[in-house]
Amino acid sequence: MSGKRVSVPPRWIVRLAWSVHRGLHRISGGRLALRRPRHGRYGLMRLTTRGRRSGQPRSVILAYLEDGPNLTTLAMNGWSDGEPAWWLNLLADPAAQIELRDGTRPVHARAAAGAEHDQLWQRWREVDEDLDAYAVLRSTPTAVVIFEER
């Protein structure tokens, strides 16, 4: 752990940033909102799930890393408590679609466990040295989500 004290911005700032990012995606046709990961930097993808109550498509832009043919992300809600709606949707129905800079793909989501979780968490630590400090702000563990192509 970095030992550094971190803080999360107020919820309204996080929600505003998410809205702006979605707007950039919509206005630019995805050109300005999505990116591939590079050494030391995560990529940005658009995930579309089926709403667990409404049954309607729900989209969100998330950070991701590549793990061989799979993609991984962290199920956190802006580092605030509570599970993100997209993760709850995937727990109800793990089938989803991911949009990347170079196209879309159907995926199946699952939570990493055991050694696989530890290995992927370490990969995320390499991208964000404050990962553990942010994670302790949450009262529940943060799932590492793996997207496998269907």
Question: Explain this structure to me?
Answer:
The protein is of the alpha+beta class and 150 residues long. Helix content is 30%, strand content 31%. The protein has a 6-stranded antiparallel β-barrel. The relative contact order is 0.20.
Spans where pLDDT lies below 50 across 5 or more residues: none
- Secondary structure tally, helices: 4
Number of strands: 6
Q: What separation lies between the terminal Cα atoms?
A: 35 Å
In round numbers, the mean pLDDT is 91
Order of adjacent strands in the largest pleated sheet: 1-2-3-6-5-4
Largest sheet, strands/sense/barrel: 6 strands, antiparallel, barrel
Q: From N to C, what is the helix and strand string?
A: HEEEHEEHHE
Oligomeric state of the chains in view: single chain
Shape: globular
Hey, roughly how much beta strand do the residues contain?
25-35%
Cα gyration radius (Å): 15 Å
Question: Which class best fits the helix and strand makeup?
Answer: alpha+beta
